[in-house]
Amino acid sequence: DPRVAERFELYCCGVELANGFGELTDAEEQRRRFVIEMDEKQRIYGERYPLDEDFLAALAIMPPASGIALGFDRLVMLATGAQKIEDVIWTPVAAP
User: Fold this and answer.
1) For residue 64, what pLDDT is reported?
2) Do residues 48 and 36 make contact, with C-beta atoms less than 8 angstroms apart?
3) The domain containing residue 16 runs over which residues?
């Protein structure tokens, strides 16, 4: 169903900790999407790049897969009781 995506979010104490998702491992569907994106890029910017055939070949033999992205700084925030993510973020935040 093209109206939905395989994904979920993990929350703890009202804080989003992680996003999970199913990976697109259908090489032909990925090729179709790449072509649509390149057509749009050419229409807007007048340039086109070759498709990543190595990536598409790898997808063709890849089993179904999923992934999850954990916000480690958010986990540290919860573990330490910090009220703001800025209190635990490990990289300096640039001034506006």
Assistant:
1) 94
2) no
3) 1-23+71-96
Q: Considering only CA atoms, which of 3, 7, 1, 10 is closest in space to residue 71?
A: 10
- Model-wide pTM > 0.70: no
Residue 49 scores a pLDDT above 90: yes
**Pair 35, 53 in one domain:** yes
With a CB cutoff of 8 Å and minimum separation 6, the contacts of 2 are none
- Give the total number of structural domains in the chain: 2
